């Protein structure tokens, strides 16, 4: 007669409930044999596996990951564990941001007259811990439109030589990734994002573009980049980070001597439009305030030179690149104003209202006025900043893998 432990005995010994043990059996984590009467019977090997499963679960791995690791069917356990570590690190950083901001708010000056501490905290922390632009399908569309609209302006002259390994942290849905890879047909790319949903979308986009053989999309955090790599390229990521210099230092550490970093960021302060409108400027200000509350900086473009220098990069150059939509550029009026900039600032409507920054009427009037600048007689300008920095002195051997970039010419 077969010997072993019943599910009840193991529940008692491990502290897991019978329900959890049954669920783990159904999900293939630990699947014991059955007695002729159909009861679960855990063999000594099942008990060993159960204890290993409990250890892996305590790390926070998902049940299917635990099952694959214990079955030996995970093709790269080290990669799974590294990706998990990156996720844990990202979570810790998010929690630290929330903790620091909460401490700051609670230690700050007394709340506005008549406001209780809970209201102050709710107002100040509306956006904390979340990514200000959100992860909705409309934001993915906006990022794709932004990349397509601005490809010539932002990517012009950015090309990496054959054989170079390029890292793109904060790749989002892969909108810039496919442009970068298409413009450097002999380079290899590693694209990184901390959000699994973005990674999945970027991977699908890379595959659809037929670039999967030389573009690897991974879950990971910019503060812990894989390396060494020859070049780094960053689009619209630093604006969201509470400590951008820390991220830049980490990226510098991932670069080989002679490597370069290319950073492209916007600056809402460098927005100009006609007809001018106080309501439209107030909408932009809502986005700036919320991004600041989330730990970011919508005006980071103007800070790129000092940030790269503080992070230890050499030979820093910065090039402002302005998109100006007017009657002679109806394509830009449509893509930049209607499909890129306005949807981005309009996307903060709910949090801006929740934070008490504006009223529905004023916000909607401001969005209408922004769209008005794309109509006949209107104009709209936005300036992006493209910075390039290098690591160490370029040697003859590394020079051959340097990117072509007009800002360095
Ligand atoms: C504005 S999107 C830009 C995406 C892409 N670079 C583009 O221009 O289309 C910023 C992205 O950075 C990611 N991100 C934010 N913080 C990050 C971090 N610490 N490490 C890696 N990715 C991060 C977000 O998940 C988001 O997908």
From TrEMBL:
PROSITE patterns the record matches: HTH_MERR_1, HTH_MERR_2
- What are the record keywords, sorted? DNA-binding
Q: Which residues form the signal peptide?
A: none
Recorded hits in InterPro entries, A to Z, give: DNA-bd_dom_put_sf, MerR-type_HTH_dom, MerR_fam, Methyltransf_12, SAM-dependent_MTases_sf
Q: Boundaries of each HTH merR-type domain copy?
A: 4-72
Query: Key word DNA-binding present in the record?
Result: yes
The protein's name is HTH merR-type domain-containing protein
Q: Which organism is it from?
A: Actinomycetospora straminea
The uppermost taxa in this organism's lineage are: Bacteria, Bacillati, Actinomycetota, Actinomycetes, Pseudonocardiales
């Amino acid at each position: 007669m077969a010997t072993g432990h019943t599910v009840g005995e193991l529940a008692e010994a491990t502290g897991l409930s019978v329900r959890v043990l049954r669920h783990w059996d159904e999900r293939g984590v630990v699947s014991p044999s059955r007695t002729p009467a159909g009861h679960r019977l855990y063999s000594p090997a099942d008990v060993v596996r159960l204890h290993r499963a409990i250890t892996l679960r305590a790390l926070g791995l998902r049940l299917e990951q635990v099952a694959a690791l214990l079955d030996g069917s995970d093709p790269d356990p080290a990669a799974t564990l590294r990706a998990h570590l990156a996720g844990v690190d990202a979570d810790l950083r998010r929690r630290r941001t929330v903790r620091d901001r909460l401490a700051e708010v609670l230690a700050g000056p007394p709340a506005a007259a008549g406001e209780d501490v809970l209201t102050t905290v709710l107002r100040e922390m509306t956006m904390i811990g979340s990514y200000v632009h959100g992860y909705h399908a409309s934001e993915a569309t906006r990022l794709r439109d932004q990349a397509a609209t601005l490809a010539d302006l932002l990517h012009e002259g950015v090309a990496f030589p054959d054989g170079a390994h390029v890292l793109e942290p904060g790749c989002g849905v892969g909108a810039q990734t496919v442009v970068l890879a298409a413009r450097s047909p002999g380079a290899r790319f590693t694209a990184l994002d901390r959000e699994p949903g973005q990674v999945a979308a970027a991977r699908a986009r890379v595959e659809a573009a037929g670039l999967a053989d030389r573009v690897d999309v991974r879950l990971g955090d910019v503060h812990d980049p894989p390396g060494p790599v020859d070049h780094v390229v960053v689009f619209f990521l630093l604006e969201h980070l509470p400590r951008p210099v820390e991220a830049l230092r980490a990226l510098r550490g991932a670069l080989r001597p002679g490597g370069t970093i290319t950073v492209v960021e916007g600056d809402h302060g460098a927005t100009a439009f006609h007809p001018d409108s106080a309501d439209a400027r107030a909408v932009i200000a809502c986005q700036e305030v919320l991004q600041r509350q989330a730990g970011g900086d919508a005006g980071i473009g103007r800070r790129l030179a000092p940030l790269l220098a503080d992070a230890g990069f050499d030979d820093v150059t910065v090039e402002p690149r302005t998109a100006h939509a007017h009657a002679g550029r109806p394509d830009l009026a449509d893509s930049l104003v209607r499909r890129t900039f306005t949807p981005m600032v309009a996307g903060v409507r709910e949090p801006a209202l929740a934070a008490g920054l504006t009223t529905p009427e004023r916000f909607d009037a401001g969005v209408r006025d922004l769209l008005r600048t794309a109509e006949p007689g209107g104009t709209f300008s936005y300036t992006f900043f493209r910075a390039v920095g290098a690591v160490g002195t370029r040697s003859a051997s590394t020079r051959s893998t340097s990117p072509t970039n007009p800002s360095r010419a």
